[in-house]
Specification:
This protein is α/β, with parallel strands linked by helices. The protein has 3 domains: about 60 residues; about 210 residues, Vaccinia Virus protein VP39 (Rossmann fold, 3-Layer(aba) Sandwich); about 160 residues, no CATH class. The chain is about 50% helix and about 10% strand. It is built from 21 helices and 9 strands. Bound molecules: S-adenosylmethionine. The site of S-adenosylmethionine has 24 residues, from helix 7, strand 4 and helix 9.
Length: about 450
């Protein structure tokens, strides 16, 4: 009669199990008997039947040949649950539990509806299922290129009651929507082909789950690029990588434009997980940021009291336009200019010049507009006693210019300022003052 204690003692002496742990033998025997490992210690005297002995010996033999215990048992523990595994999928590793924990900790706030998360290269579904169980309100998209892996992942999800996962057979981010994901996680293949350090047990695992080109980085290279398209601004990418790949992986992420790159160590003290965030559109395309800054500057410049200054000068002028932003329509601009509101008209013209220059991408012209209008208003304030007289003179002057500029092909900002070079008396009223005092502001407008 062979008891549990006898079977385990002979397994320890067997050359087939020489390279494997006592725990492996105990797990295999517990599996054959349909009990826990604890039960083996509780009832070492329990006799084994012939079928149990031969089944146990068969498993020991296969284990001796290097087949992983998880494949022999058909399941593997991950986090707080058991997953069915077979040689079509990688056996989930403890390091990957760290990836799950980090994903749960660093997930962005759930602001607008459920978080959208993708697990690319899901294999047995380990990561996706762990996240789905911990966060039933998240929407998880599990992707794998292997149909066999996906079939097993689906089965695992069903058996573990993880309903918030959808599965897709595809290569990495293929078919995933643009800018749709708050977080993308992956434990991709990262072993260099021919790596001599690879554990012999890995020979039983699928090549496509392990190997990633000559340097072990080909999958991560693809992922870092593809994920950028799919993450929302500020979204996170969490990747597991090889213990010696910290620098090259960080380099790939940084070159692809990710920000806030952080490293995390596994329980053995190796850098194993990397986390990075998607930059905002402006960070990705600095020219957008520059354009936005220019828009803000231009708006600020235009909302300064430029036009009010002009209005103050024209306070007695019944045709003075309302203060506020310059009119949008070029027709209106012309009408207002021709209405006799010269100061306002000048501001308007300068503003229009600024605007048209701005359309070509330059803010300085807008600043000139503000500077010039400011100076016009200040001149008017400095000489209030001549305001009315100047105003009438300018009306007259402007009327003559209008005739001339209309003939010359229309009224333009340059046409008004041309009065400096025209045959008009240079010392007449306000214009003269402007030309003397504010030549610098006027000159650029004519260029
Ligand atoms: C290291 S395994 C990880 C499995 C599982 N996520 C885990 O952590 O246990 C890598 C997985 O990526 C899958 N894979 C390999 N190339 C792929 C590709 N181009 N697109 C999608 N999945 C791929 C493999 O089939 C495998 O399931």
């Amino acid at each position: 009669m062979t008891t549990i204690a006898d079977a385990l003692a002979s397994a320890r002496k067997s050359p087939a199990t020489a390279n494997h742990s006592r725990v492996d033998s105990e797990r295999l025997l517990a599996h054959v008997l349909g009990v826990t490992r604890g039960a083996l210690y509780a009832h070492p005297e329990r006799p084994l039947g012939d079928r149990e002995i031969s089944e146990f010996q068969g498993l020991l033999q296969r284990r001796g040949e290097g087949e992983p215990v998880a494949y022999l048992l058909g399941n593997a523990g991950f986090m707080d649950f058991q997953l069915a595994v077979d040689p079509c999928v990688l056996i989930p590793r403890p390091e990957t539990e760290l990836l799950v924990e980090l994903a749960l900790e660093s997930a962005p706030e759930d602001k607008n509806g459920p978080l959208q998360v993708a697990d690319i290269g899901t294999g047995s579904g380990a990561i996706a299922i762990a996240l789905a169980r911990a966060k039933p309100d998240w929407l998880i998209h599990a992707v794998d290129l292997s149909p066999q892996a996906l079939a097993l992942a689906r089965r695992n999800a069903r058996e573990l009651g993880a309903r918030n996962i959808s599965f897709r057979e595809a290569s990495w981010c293929e078919g995933l929507a643009d800018s749709a994901y708050d977080m993308i996680v992956a434990n991709p293949p990262y072993v260099a082909v021919g790596d001599p350090a690879l554990h012999p047990d890995c020979a039983f695992e699928p090549d496509m789950a392990l190997f990633a080109g000559a340097d072990g980085l080909s999958a991560i290279r693809q992922i870092t690029i593809q994920v950028r398209r799919c993450l929302k601004a500020g979204g996170l990418l969490l990747l597991e990588h090889g213990h010696d790949q910290r620098e090259p992986v960080a380099g790939l992420l940084s070159a692809a434009g990710y920000r806030n790159i952080k490293h995390y160590r596994d329980h053995a003290g190796h850098d194993r997980i990397i986390c990075a965030s998607q930059s905002s559109p402006a960070q990705r395309r600095p020219e957008l940021k520059l354009r936005r800054q220019r828009r803000i500057q231009a708006r600020t410049a235009l909302s300064e009291p430029t036009l009010n200054e002009g209005r103050r000068f024209n306070s007695g002028n019944t045709t003075s336009p309302s203060p506020g932003l310059p009119p949008k329509s070029p027709l209106n601009e012309g009408r207002r200019f021709n209405s006799g509101n010269t100061m306002y008209g000048r501001s308007q013209m300068v503003w229009r010049e600024g605007r048209s220059t701005k359309a070509g991408g330059s803010t300085p012209a807008t600043r000139d507009a503000t500077a010039c209008a400011d100076s016009c208003g200040k001149v008017a304030q400095r000489r209030p006693e001549v305001q009315l007289r100047q105003h009438h003179r300018l009306l007259d002057l402007e009327a003559r210019h209008r005739v001339r500029s209309t003939k010359a092909g229309g009224s333009t900002p340059a046409t008004l300022v041309i009065s400096k070079n025209s045959a008009q008396p240079r010392n007449s009223g306000l214009e003269s003052t402007l030309l003397q005092n504010d030549e610098n502001q006027i000159r650029p407008i004519r260029q």
